[in-house]
Amino acid sequence: MKLLFNFFMIFLLPVFCMGQDFYDQAQDEVEQRNYTQAEINIIKHLQTHSQDLKAQALLGEIYAYQKAWEKSSKINKQLIKADRDNADYHYRYGGTLGLWAKNTSKFQALFLLDDVKHHLKRATELDPKHIDSRWALVQLYMELPGIIGGSRSVAEKYAKQLQEISPVDGMMAFGFIEVYDENFDKAEAYYLKAVQIGKSATTYQKLIDLYQQTEQKEQYLLTLLDAYNQTDRSQFLTQFLEEEIQAFRMTDALKAKLIKRIDASGQQEHSQNINRLRRKIDSF
User: Fold this and answer.
1) What span, in angstroms and rounded, lies between the C-alpha atoms of 14 and 12?
2) Inter-axis angle of helices 106-126 and 87-102, to 10 degrees?
3) 3 state SS of 5
4) Which domain holds residue 247?
5) Over the stretch 181-214, which tens digit does the pLDDT of each residue have?
6) What does the alpha-carbon distance between residue 186 and residue 210 come to, in Å, rounded to a whole number?
7) Which of 27, 101, 146, 259 is deepest in the core (most CB within 10 A)?
8) pLDDT tens digits, one per residue of 103-139
9) 170 lies in some domain
10) Which 8-state DSSP code applies to residue 147?
11) Please, are residues 159 and 124 in contact by the beta-carbon 8 Å criterion?
12) How many domains does the chain have?
């Protein structure tokens, strides 16, 4: 069973009260990836503060960071029992159940699947603007085989809901659907719209990934520079510099387009990499 659940990324939520030593220390330990010590401290804290939902939520996240999906699921289930109307708790529970399903046997994955769907859907019902749960459902319904409930039409339903909440997320979701069905021209159109709306590193990266996947080398290289010029993110320069283009036929027209984009950047912060990039292009 193909279950990727790429959108079930568990991030620290800004719920910790700064100025409280316990939460400051726990957050620092998580940010430093000192998960074992953070786990020990939180469990000790919960022994005397068993109703502390913030601490429980953080413990669930720590288990998720360690890919201990079963443990994380149990914590998130407890959170739902404490607050059944919390959309984030349902999303967390459905998400960690999904990742548990991905990493267990096919038989157990099927057993978990109904709960995954139920809690993700419940998150959308509780919060009409909950983006993450809708993204998860788009991906889930595209990746599940039809025989066990996969459905493009259901995925499109949640993509439309995303579009109403956030136009850029809607375009990205429809792009994901078309990529999954290998309708790459349609996917490109959606990702281009997402770039026009969002102009963010995330939207550009999806378009760049599509060009790389479909081996559109010229568009791939040009979009890397467009992404850098728009976002000022050095990751795009690095990606270009690391690209193996020796076997790619660099035409004079393409070289001129690339140089024009470099000249348009006007960025001084990454001047060393820009000069390296110019020399790399000039060498062809």
Assistant:
1) 7
2) 160
3) coil
4) 199-284
5) 999 999 999 999 999 999 999 999 999 999 999 9
6) 11
7) 101
8) 988 889 899 999 999 999 999 999 999 999 999 999 9
9) no
10) G
11) no
12) 1
C-alpha torsion sign, points 63, 67, 73, 74: negative
Residue 127: alpha-carbon gap to chain centroid: 20
Give me the DSSP letters along 216-284: -HHHHHHHHHHHHHHH--HHHHHHHHT---TTS---HHHHHHHHHHHHHH--STTHHHHHHHHHHHHT-
Structure confidence by residue, pLDDT tens digits, 10-43: 333 444 443 357 778 888 888 889 999 999 999 9
Domain assignment present for residue 227? The answer is yes
Question: Is 203 in contact with 168 (CB distance < 8 Å)?
Answer: yes
Residues 221, 237: Cα–Cα separation, whole Å: 10
CA torsion, points 52, 54, 59, 61, in degrees to nearest 10? 160
The residue whose two tokens read 């994955």 is 109
The single-letter code of the amino acid at 206 is K
What are the helix (H) ranges across the chain?
21-31, 35-48, 53-65, 69-82, 87-102, 106-126, 131-143, 152-165, 167-180, 184-198, 201-213, 217-231, 234-241, 252-265, 271-282
Residues 267/232, Cβ–Cβ less than 8 Å: yes
Which positions ≥6 away from 188 have C-beta within 8 Å?
A: 175, 207, 210
Residue type (1 letter), 39: E
CB 255 within 8 A of CB 240: no
Q: Is residue 18 in some structural domain?
A: no
CA-CA distance, 259 to 279, in Å (whole number)?
10
The b-or-e profile of 202-212 (16+ CB within 10 A means b, else e) is: ebbbbbbebbb
| pLDDT value, residue 197 | 97
Q: Is residue 40 part of a domain?
A: no
